[in-house]
């Protein structure tokens, strides 16, 4: 759940934290709060380790990092299957209604 004072997954000062701040403390502090009709927060933390190669000199190419959010169990079935059938472009008489 969104709280404006909780900005970082590891707390306000992650490099100088004694370990009493961050996600664990946030979770404990708000464990009895309802999530209904509230803004949810995800802290995405990543690290990129670049192994140096001769091809990187004099200019290093790019190093990419990313993520995807993919719902699971959001619908009981695929909403794409609940689409009306297409209407034929050329339609003559009673046969059009059966397509």
UniProtKB/TrEMBL annotation:
It comes from the Eukaryota. Its EC number is 1.4.3.-. Pfam families: Cu_amine_oxid. One of its GO terms (molecular function) is primary methylamine oxidase activity. Topaquinone (TPQ) is generated by copper-dependent autoxidation of a specific tyrosyl residue. The keyword Metal-binding applies. Contains 1 topaquinone per subunit. Residues 1-81 form the Copper amine oxidase catalytic domain. The keyword Metal-binding applies. Its cofactor is Cu cation. Keywords: Copper, Metal-binding, Oxidoreductase, TPQ. It is an enzyme of class 1 (oxidoreductase). SUPFAM superfamilies: Amine oxidase catalytic domain (SSF49998). GO terms for biological process: amine metabolic process. Gene3D superfamilies: Copper amine oxidase, catalytic domain. Belongs to the copper/topaquinone oxidase family. This is Amine oxidase. The lineage of its organism: Eukaryota, Metazoa, Spiralia, Gnathifera, Rotifera.
